[in-house]
Specification:
Layout: E1 3-8, E2 12-13, E3 16-21, E4 28-33, E5 37-38, E6 42-47, H1 54-65, H2 73-89, H3 104-117, H4 123-141, E7 154-161, E8 171-178, H5 202-215, E9 217-220, E10 227-230, H6 233-245, H7 249-254, H8 265-269, E11 272-273, E12 279-281, E13 295-297, E14 299-300, H9 301-311, H10 314-326, H11 347-361, H12 374-389, H13 394-405, H14 411-423, H15 427-442
Antiparallel strand pairs: 1-6, 2-5, 3-4, 7-8, 9-10, 11-14, 12-13
Helix pairs in contact: 2-4, 3-4, 5-11, 6-12, 12-13, 12-14
Length: 443
C-alpha cells in the first residue's frame, strides 16, 4: 500500500473539546471551542487507505507548533521518501537490528547515494532528505523512544574556518554531527552548476516552445492517467517572462500591471528594452525580489507589447475587477497575473502547470527533467551569447548580465559563460558542418 502527502488547509491546536450527550437519543456530539493555535497549511503523511502515519505527523506538527517553522514541505517530502522506502523494504521505522548496514537509516543513506549516482536526485536534495531523517530520529531520541540499537552514532568533526581577518585564520571549529553524512562528490557535469541552473539546450527549448506556445496543451497525471489539459494565457506569459527577461518565479507572480506600457515605434525596433525602458522590480511597489533588492530587468520589446495587449484584454479586466473587490486597499496596484477568481497567481499553480508542460515534452524527450527555474538560466546563457556575438567584451557582458539578473555572485555567471564557450562553434566548424550536410544530401 502506498503513502501519500495530504496538505491540511489550516491545522488548529489547543482548542477546548466540548462533549454533549443528547438525553433523548443518547447520541454523543463533540465540538471545539476557542480560537486555538492556527498553524496554517501543513502537509501530513497518510497511507492510501486513509490511515495516518502518526510518528511522522507528530514531528511535522512539532516543527510548526513548537519550533515555529514557516514551511515544512521539505521535511514532509523527505519523510514521504523515507517511509515509502521503508514500505518497499518491509521494515518499521524503529526497527534497528544489531548489524549497522541492516538498520533502515543506513540502508536509506545507501539508497540516496545510489539515486544521486544515477542522476535521479540532486546532491542538495539528497543531503536535505538525509538531514531531515536524522532530525526526525533526534526528536524521538530526545523523548526516550525505545530503539534496540541506535539509529546512528554521533561524531565530532573538526572543520577549518576560513576568514579574511588575520586573527581568525588557521582556526578550527568542532561540530557535532552523525555518521550518516552522505559525503557526496560535487556534481561537475555542468561546470559546477546545480541542476536547477542548467539551461535548456536549443532542441529542448524548441520542444517546450512547441508545447506551450503552439499546441498550448500540457499533460496532467494527477488522476493517475495522462490527460491533456489546456494551458492558460497566464501560464504562457509567466514562461515568456522567465525565458526572455530572466525573472525569478516570485518576481513573476508579484509583478504589477502598472509596470507594463505600450512601447512606441522606436522601442519596438530594439530587441530588448533596457535601463529606464525595462522592468523596474521594486519591493516598495509590491514586487518580491531576492533579498529585497531593487533592480531593473530588461524585457524583450515584443513581449512588452504582448503584455500591454493582455492587460487591456477583456479577460484581464474581468479578473482585475474581481481583484479590486477582494483587495480594495490594493485596487490601484493589481498584479499582472491573476487567476479566474481575481486572486494573485500562486507559485504552486505555476509549478503545477510547468509539470504538465514537462509531461508533454517527455513524449518527445523522455529524459527531460528541467524545472521552471531552468528557464532563467536559459535566458542568461542565450543573452550572454548575443552580447558576446555583438562584440561586447566578456567582462562588460558579465557585468551587465549580473546587474539585470540581480546576481550577487559572479560564480554562477562564470558557469553560464562555460556553457557559451562549449556551445560556440568556430567559423571552420560551421563550414565543416555545412559541408557534411551538403555531402549527405548528395548521397
Amino acid at each position: 500500500m502506498g503513502i501519500v502527502l495530504w496538505e491540511l488547509p489550516d491545522l488548529v491546536l489547543d482548542q477546548e473539546i466540548r462533549r454533549e450527550i443528547d438525553t433523548g437519543t443518547g447520541e454523543l456530539s463533540i465540538r471545539f471551542e476557542g480560537t486555538g493555535q492556527h498553524l496554517g497549511k501543513l502537509p501530513l503523511l497518510f497511507m492510501e487507505d486513509g490511515g495516518s502515519i502518526r510518528v511522522a505527523n507528530n514531528w511535522l506538527i512539532h516543527l510548526k507548533a513548537n519550533l515555529r517553522k514557516k514551511e515544512v514541505n521539505t521535511q514532509a517530502q523527505a519523510l514521504l521518501h523515507y517511509f515509502t522506502f521503508l514500505n518497499e523494504i518491509g521494515m518499521s521505522w524503529d526497527e534497528m537490528p544489531i548489524s549497522i548496514r541492516l538498520r533502515p537509516t543506513y540502508a536509506f543513506r545507501k539508497h540516496l547515494r545510489e539515486m544521486f549516482k544515477q542522476g535521479e536526485l540532486a546532491r542538495s536534495t539528497a543531503n536535505s532528505y538525509m538531514g531531515s531523517v536524522i532530525n526526525f530520529y533526534k526528536f524521538y531520541l530526545a523523548r526516550d523512544h525505545f530503539f534496540a540499537y541506535p539509529p546512528f552514532k554521533y561524531e565530532v568533526v573538526r572543520l577549518h574556518r576560513n576568514s579574511s581577518h588575520e586573527y581568525m585564520r588557521n582556526h578550527f571549529i568542532h561540530v557535532d554531527t552523525t555518521d550518516l553524512r552522505l559525503k557526496l562528490p560535487s556534481d561537475t557535469r555542468h561546470f559546477g552548476l546545480s541542476r536547477k541552473l542548467v539551461p535548456l539546450s536549443n532542441n529542448e527549448w524548441q520542444v517546450v516552445e512547441s508545447v506551450y506556445k503552439i499546441r498550448g496543451i500540457g499533460i496532467s497525471t494527477s488522476a493517475g492517467e495522462g490527460n491533456e489539459v489546456p494551458l492558460s494565457e497566464e501560464c504562457k506569459l509567466a514562461i515568456d517572462l522567465s525565458r526572455y527577461s530572466g525573472l525569478r518565479r516570485t518576481e513573476i507572480i508579484s509583478l504589477r500591471a502598472k509596470q507594463i506600457y505600450k512601447p512606441d515605434a522606436e522601442q519596438l525596433k530594439k530587441k530588448y528594452l533596457i535601463n529606464t525602458d525595462g522592468l523596474l522590480l521594486d519591493p516598495r511597489q509590491g514586487v518580491e525580489t531576492k533579498n529585497g533588492t531593487i533592480r531593473t530587468a530588461e524585457i524583450h520589446s515584443e513581449l512588452m507589447q504582448t503584455l500591454y495587449d493582455y492587460i487591456n484584454s477583456s479577460r484581464y479586466i474581468k479578473r482585475r475587477k474581481k481583484y479590486e473587490e477582494i483587495y480594495p486597499e490594493n485596487k490601484d496596484n493589481p498584479p499582472l497575473l491573476l487567476n479566474q477568481n481575481g486572486k494573485p497567481y500562486a507559485a504552486k499553480t505555476l509549478d503545477a502547470r510547468w509539470g504538465e508542460i514537462r509531461n508533454a515534452v517527455r513524449k518527445e524527450l523522455p529524459n527531460f527533467n528541467h524545472k521552471f527555474h531552468n528557464l532563467r538560466s536559459t535566458y542568461a546563457v542565450e543573452r550572454l551569447k548575443e552580447l558576446l556575438n555583438a562584440g561586447l567584451k566578456e567582462g562588460k557582458a558579465l557585468d551587465y548580465l549580473q546587474s539585470v539578473m540581480g546576481h550577487k555572485s559572479r560564480a554562477t555567471l562564470l558557469g553560464y559563460l562555460k556553457f557559451c564557450e562549449e556551445e560556440t562553434m568556430t567559423a571552420n566548424e560551421v563550414h565543416e558542418k555545412a559541408l557534411n550536410i551538403i555531402l549527405k544530401s548528395d548521397k
